[in-house]
């Protein structure tokens, strides 16, 4: 198992290098002049533009530009933002990444805490009224776009009922301690449920399918024939095997939640990486765009790596020769 994990970590390194190349080349091929966007002056002298391009190394060969960029990124230097004058990109991201991680973890908790138990119950009681209701919820959860569900949630629970705030992460600046965390949690409810809706539906359907498949296996029927109780069969035999595909899905879910948070944060005006990313795209703030794209890609790679590692732990049969 340790050799397998080591191989997966070694594979992670060239994938990370490829990711940096893709992010760099995508931004190089993007329309518009990054220097013009940085200076934000339509009447600027072309000579000044050329001087800026030379100073920033944009006239160097592409491979030299890539090497200079990736060596700075390795040191945590993403450059300066074009929009927020004098602000380092790393400072902008560090000020917002905690909010995005809180939103992602909260929605992941909702996804697991709701989706998996409902999936197990539906599998143990197939074709019941609650199973049909859960199946309907699953289809709706996958069919309804997050932004639409978010707008409906804002109208019902914020504007009409006034139960939850519709934007922001904190109502009163300057509060601390327990009051701060309660206030943050209050702001997380609507965007967290919105972000976790599709994941909850996915986990529920996967869990139902896997549990039904395992319950129909010969060794489960043998265990029941030997007199094991339903709960013993479920917790000792069924869930261990049914959870294997779910663990793989969990790895992909980490990246999906963080990338999906971009749209959700835009709907709720939640001060995380999503709103920063949208503003950066609108204003062609290339350093911020590259940094956030790279971060999202790294999170997806790490999620897949963790999924492979957990997969090998719960199923020792997994080996890559």
TrEMBL record:
<feature type="transmembrane region" description="Helical">
    <location>
        <begin position="135"/>
        <end position="165"/>
    </location>
</feature>
<feature type="domain" description="ABC transmembrane type-1">
    <location>
        <begin position="97"/>
        <end position="307"/>
    </location>
</feature>
<feature type="transmembrane region" description="Helical">
    <location>
        <begin position="246"/>
        <end position="268"/>
    </location>
</feature>
<feature type="transmembrane region" description="Helical">
    <location>
        <begin position="101"/>
        <end position="123"/>
    </location>
</feature>
<dbReference type="InterPro" id="IPR045621">
    <property type="entry name" value="BPD_transp_1_N"/>
</dbReference>
<protein>
    <submittedName>
        <fullName>ABC transporter permease</fullName>
    </submittedName>
</protein>
<keyword id="KW-0813">Transport</keyword>
<dbReference type="GO" id="GO:0005886">
    <property type="term" value="C:plasma membrane"/>
</dbReference>
<feature type="transmembrane region" description="Helical">
    <location>
        <begin position="185"/>
        <end position="204"/>
    </location>
</feature>
<keyword id="KW-1133">Transmembrane helix</keyword>
<feature type="transmembrane region" description="Helical">
    <location>
        <begin position="288"/>
        <end position="311"/>
    </location>
</feature>
<dbReference type="InterPro" id="IPR035906">
    <property type="entry name" value="MetI-like_sf"/>
</dbReference>
<comment type="similarity">
    <text>Belongs to the binding-protein-dependent transport system permease family.</text>
</comment>
<dbReference type="Pfam" id="PF19300">
    <property type="entry name" value="BPD_transp_1_N"/>
</dbReference>
<dbReference type="Pfam" id="PF00528">
    <property type="entry name" value="BPD_transp_1"/>
</dbReference>
<keyword id="KW-1003">Cell membrane</keyword>
<feature type="transmembrane region" description="Helical">
    <location>
        <begin position="9"/>
        <end position="30"/>
    </location>
</feature>
<dbReference type="InterPro" id="IPR000515">
    <property type="entry name" value="MetI-like"/>
</dbReference>
<keyword id="KW-0472">Membrane</keyword>
<dbReference type="GO" id="GO:0055085">
    <property type="term" value="P:transmembrane transport"/>
</dbReference>
<keyword id="KW-0812">Transmembrane</keyword>
């Amino acid at each position: 198992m340790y050799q397998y994990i080591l191989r997966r970590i070694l594979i992670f390194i060239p994938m990370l290098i490829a990711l940096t190349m893709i992010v760099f080349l995508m931004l190089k091929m993007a329309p518009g002049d990054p220097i013009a966007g940085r200076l934000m002056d339509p009447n600027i002298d072309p000579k000044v533009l050329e001087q800026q391009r030379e100073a920033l190394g944009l006239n160097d060969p592409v491979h030299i530009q890539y090497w200079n960029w990736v060596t700075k990124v390795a040191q945590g230097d993403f450059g300066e933002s074009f929009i927020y004058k004098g602000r380092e990109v790393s400072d902008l991201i560090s000020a917002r990444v905690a909010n995005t991680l809180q939103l992602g973890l909260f929605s992941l908790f909702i996804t697991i805490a709701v989706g998996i138990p409902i999936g197990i119950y539906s599998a143990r009681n197939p074709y019941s009224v609650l199973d049909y209701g859960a199946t309907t919820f699953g289809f709706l959860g996958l069919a309804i776009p997050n932004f639409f569900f978010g707008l409906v949630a804002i109208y019902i629970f914020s504007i009409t009922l006034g139960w939850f705030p519709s934007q922001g992460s904190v109502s009163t600046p300057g509060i601390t301690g327990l009051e701060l965390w309660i206030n943050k949690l209050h702001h997380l409810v609507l965007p967290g449920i919105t972000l976790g809706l599709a994941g909850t539906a996915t986990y529920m359907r996967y869990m139902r399918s896997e549990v039904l498949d395992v319950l129909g296996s010969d060794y489960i029927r043998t265990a029941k024939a030997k007199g094991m109780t339903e709960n013993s069969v479920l917790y000792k035999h069924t869930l261990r095997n049914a959870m294997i595909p779910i663990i793989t899905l969990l790895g992909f879910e980490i990246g999906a939640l963080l990338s999906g948070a971009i749209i959700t944060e835009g709907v709720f005006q939640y001060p995380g990486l999503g709103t920063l990313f949208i503003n950066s795209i609108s204003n062609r703030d290339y350093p911020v765009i590259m940094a956030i794209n790279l971060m999202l890609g790294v999170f997806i790679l790490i999620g897949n790596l963790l999924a492979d590692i957990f997969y090998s732990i719960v199923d020792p049969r997994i080996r890559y020769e």
